[in-house]
Specification:
Strand content: 15-25%
Number of strands: 5
Number of domains: 1
Order of helices and strands: EHEHEHEHEH
Strand order of the largest sheet: 2-1-3-4-5
Helix content: 40-55%
CATH superfamily: Response regulator
Largest sheet: 5 strands, parallel
Low-confidence stretches: none
């Protein structure tokens, strides 16, 4: 009987936020459970997603801030969706237009939203729920 432990690779979570302190908090909290990639702009998010895809690595969940310094998160989410995307959760400290959110979900650009401030246990539960869909 083989007693070698089975390797179970971690799922990959990409986090895009222009607040560096928040990015580092996310990374530190989530890297116990997931492979974590952090990026701090919409442009870098799209480029890094394409780079990972070309390397044959799957990004399973994207946590994407709505108000980035260089573009809005809905634009990034839809661009990544066009690239045969990832399950994206749009994060915002502001109330997002409910019709915009419904449209983004209907177009499969995002799977849901998260309101700031964020509690880490809640975000971990939400990521697990998204991965189980």
């Amino acid at each position: 009987m083989d007693s070698t432990p089975r390797y179970s690779p971690k799922k990959t979570v990409m986090i895009c936020d222009d607040e560096i302190d928040l990015l580092n908090l996310f990374k530190k909290s989530l890297e116990l459970y997931y492979e974590v990639i952090i990026v701090d702009s919409g442009k870098e998010c799209i480029e890094k997603y394409i780079e990972e895809k070309h390397k044959g690595r799957q990004v399973h969940v994207l946590l994407l801030d709505y108000k980035l310094g260089d573009m809005l998160g809905d634009v990034v989410a839809c661009k990544i969706s066009e690239l045969n995307g990832v399950k994206t959760l749009l994060i915002s400290a502001y109330d997002l237009d409910p019709n915009m959110v419904k449209d983004l979900i209907a177009r499969q650009c995002i799977v849901g939203t998260i309101r700031k401030p964020i509690r880490m246990p809640a975000i971990i539960r939400q990521i697990k729920n998204v991965l189980n869909r």
